[in-house]
Inverse folding.
């Protein structure tokens, strides 16, 4: 049970394969369809359409101290879906979600290759082409941050 001084809240991420994350956190930042959204304790209720990008979930430190083994945040590549914020809880339901901790450069490259292949399709609408271009750009940025 959280104390009255506890500024954390519950965060869940559900992807196509099921629940990928269920934890307490002090902040969540997700890509909405119209920009980045940051959530802290006691945020007003809202429903947001997800965009494409990186979901960041802060990892609270045990006892408030720094640990050498835990990263400061958990990151996921997400593409589409919804985020519901209500009563100190964030639930993200993503059409596509890939954990970035432990992700290999080959995994990101495979996603990048798939997006480039999609872009080569003459059947894409202008909106689909714009989305795939955004996807390529986001995946390139992620690939740059992952050690090979």
């Amino acid at each position: 049970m959280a104390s009255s001084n506890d500024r954390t809240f519950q965060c869940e991420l559900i992807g196509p394969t099921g629940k990928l994350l269920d934890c307490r956190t002090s902040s969540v930042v997700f890509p909405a369809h119209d920009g980045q959204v940051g959530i802290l304790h006691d945020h007003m209720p809202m429903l947001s359409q997800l965009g494409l990008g990186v979901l960041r979930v802060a990892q609270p430190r045990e006892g408030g101290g720094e640990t050498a083994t835990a990263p400061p945040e958990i990151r996921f590549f997400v593409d589409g879906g919804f985020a519901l914020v209500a009563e100190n809880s964030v639930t993200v339901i993503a059409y596509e979600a890939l954990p970035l901790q432990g992700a290999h450069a080959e995994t990101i490259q495979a996603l990048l290759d798939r997006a480039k292949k999609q872009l080569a399709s003459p059947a894409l609408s202008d909106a689909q082409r714009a989305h795939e271009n955004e996807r390529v750009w986001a995946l390139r940025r992620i690939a740059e941050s992952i050690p090979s």
In short: Residues 28 and 57 are 5 Å apart (CA to CA). The chain has two helices and eight strands.
